[in-house]
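Progress against Task 2.4 (sequence-to-structure conversion) is shown through the following example record, which the project officer requested during the mid-term review.
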Amino acid sequence: MILRKEYLDNLTALKDKQVIKVITGVRRCGKSTLFDLYIDYLKQTGVEDSQITAVNLEELENDELLDYKALYRYITSKLVPDKNNYIFIDEVQKCAGFEKAVDSLFVKKNCDIYITGSNAYLLSGELATLLSGRYIQIEMLPFSFKEYYEATQEGGRSKREIFYSYLRYGSFPYVAYLENNEKVINQYIEGIYSTILLKEVAAREKINDVSVLENILKTVASSIGSPVSAKKISDTLISSGRKISPNTVESYLRALMDSYILYRATRYDIKGRQFLKTLGKYYFVDTGTRNHIISQSSKDLGHLLENVVYLELLRRKNRVNIGKLAEKEIDFVAVNMNEIEYYQVCASVIDEKTLERELAPLREIKDNYPKTLLTLDDIGNGADYGGIKQINIIDWLLS
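Structure tokens generated for the chain above:
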């Protein structure tokens, strides 16, 4: 079992702190496994089984706990007096009115509460109102390449071979253990994809025609790495015979982002130091899902690399935007606290013209923050072009 060290360290640092720990992320990204890992850690530090109450609301035997009063009664019946109690509620959004139960548990002095949810909506309702300033959100993503590599490196394959599997099949943790069985992997991804569309998005937004959602996702999947807007998507669908307004597209995109299947990077004017509202880029939480939606081809390589780099920058606790500099574009502007880093991503810059094209926007930035060109090339790896470092993407992901 891969330890998911970053997330586990985050939880251990928050142990017994008077805040609710809210772990969010797309379905099957590893939230339940993280609970298992953390519970093992608690037991290793001396916490007794009786002090731990764990409830997974997706399990059929817990159907009666989908009422918040029943959930509250069940958990309080398990509490050990005069000791710290550790409460874990998985997929808490399935319980109607869960925030009332969580709020009542929180005010008890001996309760350390951990909850997970697969939809950002859970933090936009009463929970945020009731517990303003009293919870910490930990956003979880599927496997990084480093974690995927750790899970799959046995068998004699090279780092590059494993990386191409990661690009093709994606980063959902269980995929790493399916031994590149493409048929089984596709079935597994289809199950996750259908569940998100039908249960997380269509049901919440009361969408009867799911094919509209699928068409929007296909349009976005074909536009990875390219600026796109709700109007542009609407125009594309209208031209193919599907009448839909930009406002409707916008609401569906927001629902897809709330379900963590899509992420949006906004544009940032580097010179003017301001965010721009138009023409952001969308990235998928998992390249395997994106490849499942549309046929993969060799010309997609650069776009898939961009998607992987974007997610990795998010994992490294950065705010990630697209950089605009006059008529030029920087793939990513990553901000962590007050530190800024600039990134260009390209499959290969062995061709001299391609190298100059990728370096040109970075050279026009006049500040002294780090500038990096990420490629798949081994030739040129480690090169320095006047302060712009060229690094192999695979090495960077494993660093």
